[in-house]
């Protein structure tokens, strides 16, 4: 069975881990277990059975802070109150991330995917990348750094989205602690960040290369060309689907496929569920794990397996 990352370590970015406790101990909150799924569905985050306890705990914490003692009342208020919905989203989601998380996948992007896209891309047409479920921005900014290092910044556009508005606000601040930079060497830190006290601010010209948008995958209408969310050459949707139930994963797999340009690539994380049966992807096995592609020229190369670089 797939393991859900427990993210039990300290979370200096302020977002909850899946096993965070506290806040609601000892108090009685009616209907949480019975209504947890409906609350999660209503905020667009249908969860698998393995997360039931974590989600119920998250809901209890919100109820405690809001002095709501019955889950039915909470359910009624979702949607009508944006601040409450945002708070629930923030408690229920897991925002663990860091710069260059999954280094093998970044090597695959740098040495295999970007060169392939550049060979194929028509003169003057930008390469379009989307970090779907970007949390506090470390993933899309890592891509921006990678492109800058390789002299590609002028030919790449990077979009990033998340369901959590709090995470997106933090992403746009682009100000990080050591924990976010635990996979980042001194050279990149010195070159792309300005240190102030114990924190690191990403250089403004780099931060401005990423365009952030609020999107609920699986619920919002996608592709959304009016938001710039269509025709991507590369999508990273990593460590997002592992927290969602099978029906949501199926919907999102189809959406991601539809958001890819012909020949476009999709990477998920090793902990995420497999997607090859959920949309007509071409599937490639690489040293960095399985990656998916939308076939070029409408060919259906479904489930083909090829050896690719990335180590
Ligand atoms: C564990 S973080 C992963 C961040 C980054 N992709 C990485 O791999 O480091 C998961 C993020 O997905 C977001 N998320 C979860 N479900 C989502 C959904 N249905 N739509 C959009 N974002 C979602 C959460 O808010 C959270 O910020």
TrEMBL record:
Residue span, CheR-type methyltransferase domain: 35-297
Task: List, in alphabetical order, the Gene Ontology terms for molecular function in this entry.
Answer: S-adenosylmethionine-dependent methyltransferase activity
Q: Which UniProt keywords apply?
A: Methyltransferase, S-adenosyl-L-methionine, Transferase
| SUPFAM superfamilies, alphabetized | S-adenosyl-L-methionine-dependent methyltransferases
Give the coiled coil ranges.
none
User: Which residue stretches does the UniProt record annotate as biased composition, category Polar residues?
Assistant: 1-11
CDD domains attached to this UniProt entry: AdoMet_MTases (cd02440)
Extract one GO BP annotation from the record: methylation
Disordered: annotated span: 1-25
Keyword field contains ATP-binding: no
Q: Which Pfam families match?
A: CheR
Could you tell me what this protein is called? Answer: CheR-type methyltransferase domain-containing protein
The species is Sinorhizobium saheli
What are the top taxonomic ranks of the organism?
Answer: Bacteria, Pseudomonadati, Pseudomonadota, Alphaproteobacteria, Hyphomicrobiales
């Amino acid at each position: 069975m797939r393991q859900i990352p427990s993210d039990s370590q300290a979370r200096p970015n302020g977002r909850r881990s899946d096993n965070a406790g506290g806040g609601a101990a000892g108090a009685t909150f009616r209907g949480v277990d019975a209504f947890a799924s409906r609350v999660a569905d209503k905020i667009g985050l249908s969860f698998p059975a393995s997360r039931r306890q974590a989600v119920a705990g998250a809901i209890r914490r919100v109820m405690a802070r809001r002095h709501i003692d019955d889950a039915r009342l909470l359910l009624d208020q979702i949607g009508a109150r944006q601040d409450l919905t945002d708070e629930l989203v923030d408690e229920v989601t897991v925002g663990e991330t860091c710069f260059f998380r999954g280094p093998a996948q970044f090597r695959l992007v740098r040495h295999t995917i970007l060169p392939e896209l550049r060979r194929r891309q028509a003169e003057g047409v930008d390469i379009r990348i989307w970090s779907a479920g970007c949390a506090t921005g470390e993933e899309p900014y890592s891509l921006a750094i990678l492109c800058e290092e390789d002299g590609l910044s002028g030919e790449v556009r990077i979009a990033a989205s998340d369901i959590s508005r709090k995470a997106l606000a933090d992403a746009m601040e682009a100000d990080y602690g050591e924990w976010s930079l635990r996979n980042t060497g001194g050279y990149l830190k010195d070159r792309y960040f300005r240190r102030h006290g114990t924190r690191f601010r990403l250089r403004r010209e780099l931060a401005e290369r990423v365009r952030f948008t609020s999107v609920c995958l699986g619920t919002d209408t996608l592709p959304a060309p009016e938001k710039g969310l269509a025709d991507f050459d590369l999508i990273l949707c990593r460590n997002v689907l592992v927290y969602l139930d099978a029906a949501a994963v199926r919907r999102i797999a189809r959406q991601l496929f539809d958001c890819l340009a012909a020949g476009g690539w999709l990477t998920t994380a090793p902990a995420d569920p497999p997607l090859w049966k959920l949309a007509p992807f071409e599937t490639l096995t690489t040293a960095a794990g399985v990656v998916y592609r939308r076939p070029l020229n409408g060919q259906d190369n479904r489930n083909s397996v090829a050896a690719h670089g990335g180590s």
